[in-house]
Design a protein that fits this description.
Number of strands: 8
Bound molecules: 2-phosphoglycolic acid
CATH class: Alpha Beta
Strand content: 15-25%
Order of helices and strands: EHEHEHEHHEHHHEHHEHEH
CATH topology: TIM Barrel
Strand order of the largest sheet: 1-2-3-4-5-6-7-8
Oligomer: single chain
Number of helices: 12
Number of domains: 1
Low-confidence stretches: none
Helix content: 40-55%
Distance between the termini: 15 Å
Radius of gyration: 17 Å
Mean pLDDT: 97
Shape: globular
CATH architecture: Alpha-Beta Barrel
């Protein structure tokens, strides 16, 4: 059975102290009331990872970096390698987020290097894809997302691909308060699962967790998560409040 996953993406928010407090609050709420069959992940800034790993029960809550370097190590000032991330106790890394692609020029070639290094170092990539408003408006979102996947994670061997979690995040829905409709989200996730089936076979497609992200919140999560192909969410804004995040975890 594929996993249900609710992952928070804190982005560039919270000081270390605020982040540790938030992690502790999530940890306590999840311990008391969190749906046992949902994998919970906190995507924190690099600076917070070690402290957050210490602050939570890591048997219950996984920690993710929001990026890693495209190089293994060396003279790359300011970069944080996949091996460094792994050595903090993080288990996941968010890669290919549209904000990284758009503001930091991350291309498919760069992302392929990051995914390879993440996998080599035993991290689970939460690999993001999704189209801009103009693409959706032109009704070419399926081709766009297919190309994003063909150029990157669909080049992996089946054994490596099985380690990937996919997050579909339409850019027009991220941080805008405009969620994709349940039908739009389900349709795209079913399309992605179909592509996986074509490429890697039905069994792997059925086992791959595919998340929806983009203005997902406590209110719309129950309907989204009730869809057959939506295996959870990548949550930005609503992951910054422990109670809201818990409600999303319990939205199945
Ligand atoms: P949002 O962000 O929930 O604030 O829209 C989601 C994301 O970018 O991961």
């Amino acid at each position: 059975m594929r996993k249900k996953i609710v992952a928070g993406n804190w982005k560039c928010n919270t000081t270390l102290q605020e982040g540790v407090q938030l992690a502790k609050s999530v940890n306590d709420l999840v311990a008391k009331e969190g749906a046992a069959d949902v994998v919970v992940v906190l995507g924190t800034p690099f600076t917070h990872i070690t402290s957050v790993v210490s602050a939570v029960d890591t048997n219950r809550i996984g920690v993710a970096a929001q990026n890693c370097a495209a190089e293994a190590k060396g003279a790359f000032t300011g970069e944080v390698s996949a091996a460094m991330v792994k050595s903090t106790g993080a288990e996941y890394v968010i890669l290919g987020h549209s904000e990284r692609r758009e503001y930091y020029g991350e291309t498919s070639a760069i992302l392929n290097k990051k995914v390879a290094l993440a996998l080599e170092n035993g991290l689970t990539p939460i690999y993001c894809c999704g189209e801009a408003f103009e693409v959706r408006n032109a009704n070419t979102q399926n081709d766009f997302v297919k190309t994003q996947l063909d150029e990157t994670i669909f080049t992996l061997s089946a054994d490596d691909f099985k380690k990937i979690v996919i997050a579909y995040e339409p850019i027009w829905a991220i941080g805008t308060g405009v969620t994709a409709s349940t039908e739009q989200a389900q349709e795209m996730l079913a399309f992605i699962r179909g592509l996986i089936a074509e490429k890697y076979g039905k069994e792997i497609a059925e086992e791959t967790s595919i998340l929806y992200g983009g203005s997902c919140n406590a209110k719309n999560a129950p309907e989204l998560f009730a869809q057959p192909d939506i295996d959870g969410g990548l949550i930005g804004g609503a992951s910054l409040k422990a109670e809201d995040f818990l409600a999303i975890i319990n939205a199945y």
